[in-house]
């Protein structure tokens, strides 16, 4: 992969997100690290990279502000999160089931839940690739890493249960 097809810097506008717990902030940082470690991203009919991408959540949409690595703006890409709500919700539910199963379930049950978790993650990744198709080329592994980041951006802090 050449630098021409690379996201070299990825910044999240924390002010556009709900407040996060230290665990959520860590999850976001890990997701960004994974993307920057290895990715394949290029604009359709646009200049080559390496790119800087600023992510902002605006009224239920994810804005990817793509710029040259020196900061010169190139293009803003908007992705509606409405179509992702179900798969993100289901992904969070199955992740919770997976973490609960690790403590008590048989290995075959854990494996079945994990297969379902991976399947939902793949579905979200394909949806992201489709949403970007007109504006950006992205390989499946990068799409998976980006979907992980989108989920990390949507995670809500767990509420304390008062009895």
Number of domains: 1
Helix content: 40-55%
By secondary-structure content and strand pairing, the structural class works out as alpha+beta
Number of DSSP strands? 6
Could you name the ranges where pLDDT drops below 50 across 5 or more consecutive residues?
A: 159-163
Mean pLDDT: 87
Radius of gyration equals 17 Å
Q: In one word, what is the shape?
A: globular
- Helix-strand string: EHEEEEHHEH
The end-to-end distance, rounded to whole angstroms, is 55 Å
Task: Count the DSSP helices.
Answer: 4
Characterize the main sheet. 4 strands, mixed
Approximately what portion of the residues adopt beta-strand conformation? 15-25%
Strand order, main sheet: write it out.
1-3-4-5
Explain this structure to me?
By secondary structure, the protein is of the alpha+beta class. It has one domain (3-154). Helix content is 47%, strand content 22%. It has four helices and six strands; from the N terminus they run βαββββααβα. The strands form two sheets. The protein has a four-stranded mixed β-sheet with strand order 1-3-4-5, with helices on one face. The protein has a two-stranded antiparallel ribbon with strand order 2-6. A hairpin with a 4-residue loop joins strand 4 and strand 5. The longest helix is centred in the C-terminal third of the chain and has 26 residues, at 107-132.
Keywords:
alpha+beta, 4-stranded mixed β-sheet
Q: Brief overview, please?
A:
This protein is an alpha+beta fold and 163 residues long.
Write the layout of secondary structure elements.
Layout: E1 7-12, H1 22-37, E2 41-43, E3 51-58, E4 61-68, E5 73-80, H2 85-104, H3 107-132, E6 136-138, H4 140-154
Parallel strand pairs: 1-3
Antiparallel strand pairs: 2-6, 3-4, 4-5
């Amino acid at each position: 992969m050449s630098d021409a097809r690379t996201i070299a810097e990825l910044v999240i506008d924390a002010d556009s997100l709900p407040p996060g717990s230290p665990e959520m902030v860590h999850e976001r940082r890990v997701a960004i690290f994974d993307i920057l470690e290895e990715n394949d991203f290029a604009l359709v009919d646009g200049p080559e990279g390496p790119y800087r991408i600023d992510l902002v959540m605006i009224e239920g949409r994810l804005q990817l502000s793509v710029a040259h690595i020196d900061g010169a703006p190139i293009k803003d890409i908007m992705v509606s999160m409405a179509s992702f709500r179900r798969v993100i919700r289901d992904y969070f539910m199955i992740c919770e089931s997976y973490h609960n199963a690790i403590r008590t379930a048989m290995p075959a049950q854990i494996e079945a839940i994990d297969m379902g978790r991976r399947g939902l993650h793949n579905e979200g990744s394909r949806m992201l690739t489709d949403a970007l198709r007109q504006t950006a080329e992205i390989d499946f592994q990068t799409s998976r890493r980006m979907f992980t980041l989108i989920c990390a951006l949507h995670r809500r802090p767990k509420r304390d249960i008062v009895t």
